[in-house]
Design the sequence.
């Protein structure tokens, strides 16, 4: 009997992502019946194999929900101006509703200038300072896909956020920082930890919800967590055998947690799902006459 039961501890981002993508697909079809196909453009610079894998994933998923996907591949030696020109062209292209520049960029390119060049209305990553600012003050905007996806995971697993202590390890602009803001908006008490934090375990052991976005394979052990904590693992690393793994030592932590995301199959698929969601929202803004009501 036990072996046919689904694992209630596991937060299945792949399954939750699939459900949300079905909803997205239906709304894409609605737009298509009005003669509008949502279009996503992805710019990738250089030939990092991991980046190419993620980008292929994003393209495949966008096509699966009926969107148009355009891939712009640029050499690692490309000039900053060429990237800016490319973005300007996409900004002016009415068939493109979302623009994503895969990060990180080569060192000779100023990421901030590149992000600033994207039309905020097409910034489906939610990285443009205007959109980051709107998010900070609680105005509706494109939310950064990974934190947004994690909020959806918490919602769909009926995890209460209000009044809970959420501890975030990592303070990057794309994951940690916006994650804290979104949880704060939902009335969590938020603590940020980072590489200069003293006695990390002291802080993480107080977490009802622990979000880990560090980039170090299997770094978080059961000694870091409180019994019954909800553990969200953002990390994407390779272990000693070259296998994909998170920042959390899943096998060590699982028993002590009340719920936990696996890697792969946790946060990753949700990031892509929210990218599709943001692209859909952008297309609806432009194409829909009967103004969709969506948060
Ligand atoms: N699944 C998904 O959808 C996504 C996964 N990722 C993955 O998530 C991970 C984090 O990504 P990202 O936020 O971009 O990474 P960054 O490298 O930009 O940031 C890492 C953060 O972790 C902190 N940190 C590093 N070492 C420690 C430590 N020993 N103790 C405490 N804090 C530490 C750093 O602190 P400091 O600021 O002091 O340097 C920094 O704030 C990576 O594995 C990445 O591949 C990223 C995006 C999406
Ligand atoms: N402008 C920009 N936007 C991003 O959103 C962005 C970025 N740059 N740079 C890199 C990070 C990383 N990221 C991931 C997305 C999906 C998976 C994903 O789909 N993971 C699968 C497994 C993938 C595999 O098998 O390799 C999973 O966890 O199940 C992982 C990582 C988005 N990022
Ligand atoms: Mg750079």
Sequence:
């Amino acid at each position: 009997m036990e072996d046919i039961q689904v694992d209630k501890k596991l937060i299945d981002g792949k399954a939750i992502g699939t459900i949300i993508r079905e909803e997205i697909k239906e709304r894409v079809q609605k737009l298509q019946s009005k003669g509008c196909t949502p279009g996503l453009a992805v710019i990738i610079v250089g030939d990092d194999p991991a980046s190419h894998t993620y980008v292929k994933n994003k393209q495949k998923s966008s096509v699966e929900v009926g969107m148009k996907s355009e891939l712009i591949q640029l050499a690692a030696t490309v000039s900053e101006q060429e990237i800016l020109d490319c973005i300007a062209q996409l900004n002016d292209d009415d068939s493109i509703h979302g623009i994503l520049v895969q990060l990180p960029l080569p060192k000779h390119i100023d990421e901030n200038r590149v992000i600033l060049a994207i039309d905020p209305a097409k910034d489906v990553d939610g990285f443009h300072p205007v959109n980051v600012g709107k998010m900070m003050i609680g105005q509706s905007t494109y939310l950064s896909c990974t934190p947004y996806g994690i909020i959806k995971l918490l919602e769909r697993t009926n995890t209460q956020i209000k009044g809970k202590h959420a501890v975030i390890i990592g303070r990057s602009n794309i994951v940690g920082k916006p994650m804290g803001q979104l949880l704060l908006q939902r009335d969590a008490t938020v603590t940020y930890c980072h590489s200069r934090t003293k006695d990390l375990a002291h802080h993480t052991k107080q977490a009802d919800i622990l979000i880990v976005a560090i980039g170090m394979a299997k770094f978080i052990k059961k000694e870091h967590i409180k019994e019954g904590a909800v553990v969200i693992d953002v990390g994407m690393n390779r272990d000693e055998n070259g296998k994909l793994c998170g920042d959390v030592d899943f096998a060590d932590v699982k028993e002590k947690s009340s719920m936990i995301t696996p890697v792969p199959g946790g946060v990753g698929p949700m990031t892509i799902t929210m990218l599709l969601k943001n692209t859909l929202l952008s297309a609806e803004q432009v194409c829909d006459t009967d103004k969709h009501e969506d948060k």
User: Anything to note?
Assistant: The beta strands are 39-45, 68-74, 98-101, 165-169, 189-193, 209-212, 230-233, 237-238, 244-245, 259-260. The radius of gyration is 19 Å. The longest strand covers residues 39-45.
